Amino acid sequence: MMGHVVKGEKQVSVGWSFTGVAELVIGQEALGGLRIALIETKISFGKAAPRRWSSPSQWHQLGQNKSGQGWGGGQQTSAGRVATGWLAPGLPEAATLQDGAVPPQDPPPPLRLLLDLSLDSSKSQHIPKGESCGTRIASEVILDSGPVSLQQFDMEMAARVLWGSLGLLRLVWCLLPQTGYVHPDEFFQSPEVMAEDVLGVEAARPWEFHPSSPCRTVVFPLLTSGSAFWLLRLWEEWGPWPGAVSGYALLVGPRLLLTTLSFALDLAVYHLAPAWGAERWNALLLLSGSYVTLVFYTRTFSNAIEGLLFAWLLVLVSPGLAKSSTPRKPTPGPQWHGWLLGGLVVAGFFNRPTFLAFALVPLFLWGTCGATDPSFKSLTQHARVLLPGASLTAVAFVAADSWYFSSPSRPSTLVLTPVNFLHYNLDPVNLARHGTHVRLTHLAVNGFLLFGALHAHTLRAAWQQLRAGLRACAQMGFPRALGAWSPRPSPRSLLLLFYFMPLTLLSAFSHQEARFLIPLLVPLVLLCSLQTQPAPYRGTLALFNILGALFFGCLHQGGLVPGLGHLEQVVHAPEPLRVPTHFTLIFTHTYMPPRHLLHLPGLGLGLSVDVVDMGGAEDGVLCQALNNFTRHPSCQAAGGPWLCRLFVVTPGTTRPAVRKCRFPLRSEMLIFPHLTLEDPPALSSLLSRAWRDHLSLHILELGEKPDNMTQKPLPKTAVGEGPIPPLSVGWTGTEP
User: Fold this and answer.
1) Does the pTM of the predicted model rise above 0.70?
2) DSSP class per residue in 465-491
3) Which of 144, 324, 366, 703 is found 20 to 30 A from 36 (Cα to Cα)?
4) Percentage of the chain lying above the pLDDT 70 cut
């Protein structure tokens, strides 16, 4: 396909045929009395560094036939002059094409570019005099993968700018911060535990981190949230501003570290895209523009760590998979490569044992790629390469976990957290406590919820692949079709395996949450960025990611984290009457509140604050609990020394339940937006004038009932040892 550079009444057609990725710059040259545009080209082949052509001595004219052989000069046609040139390292910004140029004795290396310049007056267009020839360019580039407009190179620069803007948005949105509360595991599998260990603040330690039932490794929480809190502690002790540690710092610190690590995902895709035949910047835009990256990979989820490890596992195995499909005798690679790969697999297994579902296909293909006779023997040979790094990593994780979970009663117990994790999650009864889902939930619901049109595009590609295989079996018969099957599937087929095999294995478990699939984002963007097919549904995809980011990043349980920030200011405010004050914070119909964000000193020092999570308690249970708290003998209302302040935190949809308890209201604060899918607002309420109240989190400070002064207080034995009776009604554990 030829493009056109037009000036006056003459038309210059420029056709390019090359292999590689080009970056074009316009220059000027005179040919036959006509000013035309030459192009200075920078091409990168494979993994080679980009080469720039700028030396006049290395520009040669070459006549070339269709077979690519032979030397010659320029040719004349009825339309004008056709100059065919060989581009070797060294194209000047303004090179003169002259007939009879002497070619080199040996052709340059196969970094070549075929340049055709012709004059054609039959399709001339008029450009006003004085307009530069370079201002009217509609040339097209013919790559091996198809035609690409010259505008692609401007688009590549635009893609880089857009990727940088999305990366900046990722950082800024982390610092704002995001108010959405995706799932309790974001806090209770890392920062809630590390805040207590490193900073000594009050926290609710989940059952997975108790020495009696350790199911989570402590290594990754220590490396992520623990490192962030350690830096905050150093800043508080040695920094120029005292009191720098606040609820905001406790929230943003770990998230900022994970956000920084999320750019390792971009780096992995940057290296993976060329190896798998994907458009690099298209893949990077799909990755950085996905709300999964903006929301999930900037939070302290173990699934985010799993996704990062899976991405770099693909980086380590891809060089072998991307080589020629010709069987060959395997050559030993660098020793550090096998050690690193083995260590990475074991680290992913200790982080989440489900990592094996993601690593299975890449490791199998890596173990058999290039072997003249792929068999169990070749797999065992490759497995031996992994053993040293895997063994050292496993010893390090077991030692760290055994040290962390040791206690005076169990000083020498060997702790194997992945074994405990599997023992718990392979029991259907335990999984049922966290929710049971249909086996097709990942395929039919969660994939669309996370990836939208990309998941639909991948399903269609898988169906096309399956239909082609079934058609071949129908035409040739299964044995012949199997014999004709290539031992080296196409990149498209392998990427489909990388996506659907983990999804299928995870679907075998009855508990299926959407966040379990976020590691599949990397093979998904590579599959949807292959050069053989256009990126799907760009406008729809952009709208989908905007809505997903707003919903999960701002709206979903969006008032709880800001509400904790408000309560932190309340409980840390100076006491005007110098009367000891006890705060009771009751959370009902919300996610479990992370207590470390209140920045309360631990071990009963300083403030007296009780945080009570009542989960989805019924109205009667809530009213009974409120009566018990206000009647406590330690409160001034019952003749005690404490000034008791009672706060109830509840969504707008359950606000009437507090009104039924008939407690006087001292103050009320609304935090917008807040949506709980467990108690969603009715459509009629959203269409009413009070729609904002239903989409807000209500923080109510209640007073004492008038009859509390006369009613007999509850005995101390009925309410426990502290000033307020202990109550545990809500959610007590994290998801598997």
Assistant:
1) yes
2) HHHHHHHHHHHH-HHHHHHHS-SS--H
3) 144
4) 67
